[in-house]
Amino acid sequence: MNSEKLHNHKKPFKLESGKKINDLQIAYHTFGSLNEKKDNVIWVCHALTANSDVFDWWKGLFGDNCLFNPKEHFIVCANVLGSNYGTTNPLSKNKVTGLPYYLSFPEFTVRDLAAAHQILADYLELPEISLLIGGSLGGQQAMEWSILEPHRIKKLVLIAANAQHSAWGIAFNESQRLAITSDRTFYSQSPSGGKKGLKVARSIALLSYRTYGTYGATQLEVGNEKVKDFKASSYQNYQGEKLVNRFNAYSYWYLTKAMDSHNVGRKRASIGDALRQIKAKTLVIGIVNDVLFPLEEQQFLAKNIPGARFAELNSFYGHDGFLIETEILTKEIGTFINNAETENQVISLHKIA
């Protein structure tokens, strides 16, 4: 059984910027039960526009008969700060003014997202996270949390992520924000503000989530006579409308800024030094034809996280492969978990001897 819950944090939540959010609310889902030892926790950090119901959007990896299932594990997924799926966000009411925040909402970073996860884990009284997993923005959060609390995270799976958001990724995000802010309704102080801009932003984003080959195979025209109404055009419009119907421009604007902020080296000795703070047994998975998070970014992670394993995933879908190629992920992650448990048994035997 799964259940959606809300945690209302009683203390002011101090952001990396020094600003504070009062009355922080965190929406989250749990699946399964915590065992007596409290060592069966699987924590999922979700990507940009997902929600806390991981059984809905990561089917095949999470589910009743999947690698991560509620019979064996206590699975937790929290909706991130700024998202409109239940956690405090720009459309939440500012108790000082009695009105939604909109653009007065304080900007936040990936490190702040990780800090909110820490708050929820403390509330749930989870002394350790057996396995922490995330892809894309979710991987960035998982990485930060593993640096902030290296002894709490026992195993770590990072998929299609990076140690520092690239100039290329920031340029994509800025292009999306330019689209949103060119929609004058974005400044209208209305829940529906910026919808047209958000539709364009999603169309831009999709180009980075897929590949030339993906479009060539799925949106290819039959025949040579068409001069308008192309499949690719319809597809971009459809995907844009689909997001507009379930998300809002303000959350999207803030979350892309948070992704841009990602740099594990900030206020630390260096990026490499920060990654070396991770104590968790780590699996890094890169997607060979990922346009947004190129493979060399995951190779860098695997090289600098102590003892990390690295695996390549070939996917027709590019970056979105981390959500779709669940059969391959199940095999790679399952092997990683089994090897990690075997290593623990060997270490235990050595200690006994």
UniProtKB/TrEMBL annotation:
AB hydrolase-1 domain location: 41-310
EC number: 2.3.1.31
Catalytic reactions on record: L-homoserine + acetyl-CoA = O-acetyl-L-homoserine + CoA
Statement: the UniProt record of this protein carries the keyword Nucleotide-binding: no
GO biological process: homoserine metabolic process; methionine biosynthetic process
Ligand binding (substrate): R202, D320
Pathway terms, separated by semicolons: Amino-acid biosynthesis; L-methionine biosynthesis via de novo pathway; O-acetyl-L-homoserine from L-homoserine: step 1/1
InterPro entries membership: AB_hydrolase_1, AB_hydrolase_fold, HAT_MetX-like
GO molecular function, one term: homoserine O-acetyltransferase activity
Subunit structure: Homodimer.
HAMAP family: MetX_acyltransf
Family statement: Belongs to the AB hydrolase superfamily. MetX family.
Designated name of the protein: Homoserine O-acetyltransferase
Organismal lineage: Bacteria, Pseudomonadati, Bacteroidota, Sphingobacteriia, Sphingobacteriales
UniProt gene name: metXA
